[in-house]
Amino acid sequence: xxxxxxxxxxxxxxxxxxxxxxxxxxxxxxxxxxxxxxxxxxxxxxxxxxxxxxxxxxxxxxxxxxxxxxxxxxxxxxxxxxxxxxxxxxxxxxxxxxxxxxxxxxxxxxxxxxxxxxxxxxxxxxxxxxxxxxxxxxxxxxxxxxxxxxxxxxxxxxxxxxxxxxxxxxxxxxxxxxxxxxxxxxxxxxxxxxxxxxxxxxxxxxxxxxxxxxxxxxxxxxxxx
Length: 225
Ligand code: DX5
Ligand code: ZN
Known about the structure:
Layout lengths: L5 E4 L9 H6 L8 E6 L11 H8 L6 E6 L3 H10 L4 E5 L6 H10 L3 E6 L17 E5 L15 H14 L4 E5 L7 H7 L3 E4 L1 H4 L4 H14 L5
Parallel strand pairs: 1-8, 2-3, 3-4, 4-5, 5-6, 6-7, 7-8
The protein binds D-xylitol-5-phosphate and zinc ion.
The site of zinc ion (ZN) has 6 residues, from strand 2.
């Protein structure tokens, strides 16, 4: 059984010249490290790709939570699974056949995640829940770190949590964007059980301590912990 809640620092807010060190700085405190892959097509930003994940995989044992903000995820997602990513999440908006891609990812040995961007309703995707391991709800518009959390996205989290509970499914419900000490409790109360935090972790003087504090807040919020 995976621990609950999951805290996943996003290395998008880390120092890219010292990535291995930055990942090791949260080892023992964080559950997953979140890796934001952007292609300047799906989102207007360009970050890191497969070779970086392959190299980083050798530098640490912490599970990687790869968030693909790319068009044609079918082309790249299996490579991240083969590189040893624990969870590979692709965007609903970018994928023609999410059911098939989730199946491919699982066959490649990874958990399969589906992400829903700010302007995308979640209802059309609820029927996919039994076929994915992670449902990621963006609490900002995907593309950049350091944006302001949007509480209005929590209605989607509540909807998905209701569905997961009603169907007795084992799906991680992850939130991403603007998660910090000021916002994590609202997200937990809405039903999230995995939390991505970039700026709130890597912008802190002590990233591991920031992770521990975020976890304590979720636990103290008294929901699904
Ligand atoms: C943005 C990324 C996020 C980002 C979060 O599109 O998906 O993972 O790193 O950064 P913060 O926590 O700073 O909002
Ligand atoms: Zn992300």
